[in-house]
Amino acid sequence: MSLAAYACLPARSRGRRHAEPPAPTRDAFQRDRDRIVHSTAFRRLVYKTQVFLNHEGDLFRTRLTHSLEVAQLGRSIARALRINEDLVEAIALAHDLGHTPFGHAGQDALNDCMAGHGGFEHNLQSLRVVDALEHRYPQYDGLNLSFETREGILKHCSRANAERLEAAEPNGVARRFLDRTQPGLEAQLCNLADAIAYNAHDIDDGVRSGLITVEQLSDVELFARHRREALAEHPQLQGRRVLYETIRRMLSAQVYDVIDATRAALEALAPADADAIRKAPPVVAFSDTMQAQSEDLKRFLFRNLYRHPQVTQTTDQARQVVRELFAAYLERSAEMPASYDERQDRPRAVADYIAGMTDRFAVREHERLTGRRGIA
């Protein structure tokens, strides 16, 4: 399939921070994807929390399975829009590499700990992972990914962080946060595929955990409509098959909606190339109706799952583990590996070390350093 003119084309990539000869059998974005898959940070995602901590059940999503689902959804939509599937996949697989153990609770706690030292944000940390913290190659730190992949990884960025990144890399990946332009379509698509994926799998995991019920979800139009349709077409369905079929239909409806709405926006914009996309307002989006339904589902999940007492009890414990780990390493940096202990900026070294931990390693380290089990 030929790519559209507005797709990010590997032959027109803005390149890597360290020049390298091209690979004989892979283009630049395929090479990026492969480097991400082989990275240490990618393997760690299998033991990092999505919503439920890793030890709470084998079938709940982790950061790794979430990233794979984002990549699958992203590639399906990219194919229909004739944009670069390999770039979408690379961004999707890397977008959570900087996430802490214990999900957003860990990130919030680490950000509090780093309040006087530049803060902590997982999107920025994902960029740090691929730019500096992976040590796999003799010529440079990081994975030396293409500009377009790095641009997609940096989904959010404060102005202060953008200015700091821009000073180190003029006209680099942070520039768009200063001049208020957009990333390429592939990066825009990954942002939306991320939201589609976690809404769907958080329903599945939430019902599996028993913290939310199908009956509660009947008040959410996006779910209720597709459940009614599933049962009308398959009245014999029972148990989890009803849930699976409902989620499958929800996902399909959202994917087709994004494709239709984005095609209409592209037709109106008529961009000549990827640079025209960057200068335009955001292009990849839901229709107004689907956007409203998606936001309704997010509100439901926030109230009933993410703020469920059982979830908040565990995440409160997780925050305390991160805070106590930070304090312990800050006081006794020799407890960290030498590559972190020897760094001059000790708070950032501690943050990098903790952010790279899996849930279970963080729990073990906390118990070793404090003598207490931090998470029941």
TrEMBL record:
Recorded coiled-coil stretches: none
Domain HD: residue ranges: 63-199
Which Pfam families does the entry mention? HD (PF01966), HD_assoc (PF13286)
The keyword Hydrolase appears for this protein: yes
Under InterPro entries, the record lists: dGTPase, dGTPase-like, dNTPase_2, HD/PDEase_dom, HD_domain, PHydrolase_assoc_dom
The answer to whether keyword Hydrolase applies is yes
The record's comment on protein family reads: Belongs to the dGTPase family. Type 2 subfamily.
PANTHER family given in the database record: DEOXYGUANOSINETRIPHOSPHATE TRIPHOSPHOHYDROLASE-LIKE PROTEIN, DEOXYNUCLEOSIDE TRIPHOSPHATE TRIPHOSPHOHYDROLASE
What this protein is called in its record is: Deoxyguanosinetriphosphate triphosphohydrolase-like protein
What organism does the record attribute this protein to? Variovorax gossypii
Lineage, opening ranks: Bacteria, Pseudomonadati, Pseudomonadota, Betaproteobacteria, Burkholderiales
